[in-house]
Write a structure and sequence with these properties.
By secondary structure, the chain is an all-alpha fold. It has a domain at 28-94. Helices cover 78% and strands 0% of the residues. It has 3 helices and no strands. It has helices at residues 4-14, 27-56, 60-94. The longest helix is centred in the C-terminal third of the chain and has 35 residues, at 60-94. The radius of gyration is 17 Å and the shape is elongated. The chain starts with a helix and ends with a helix.
Length: 98
Amino acid sequence: MKSAYELALERLEKEGIDRPRADSLPEEVRQRIAEARQKAEAKLAQLEILHRDRLKTMDPAAREQEKDDYVLERRRIEEQRDRKIAKLREGAGACGAP
């Protein structure tokens, strides 16, 4: 499953806009972005495991609510990750990075 950021990049490329160059960011910022992605992936994996476990013991009505809650929480984690990455990128640009 692609992140919102990756989907946005693909849409931009279809419109003829180049992707931002990863090498234009300082190494420290790239490491912090990678760390943010890893933490989000860990949270998503944990959420997935808990979700699957909860589905085993629920009645059909509760299962639907659990599925809805899972989707919302997954979206929240992804959006939080994307906001953090955008903030890191903006901070790198404000610091005079090339």
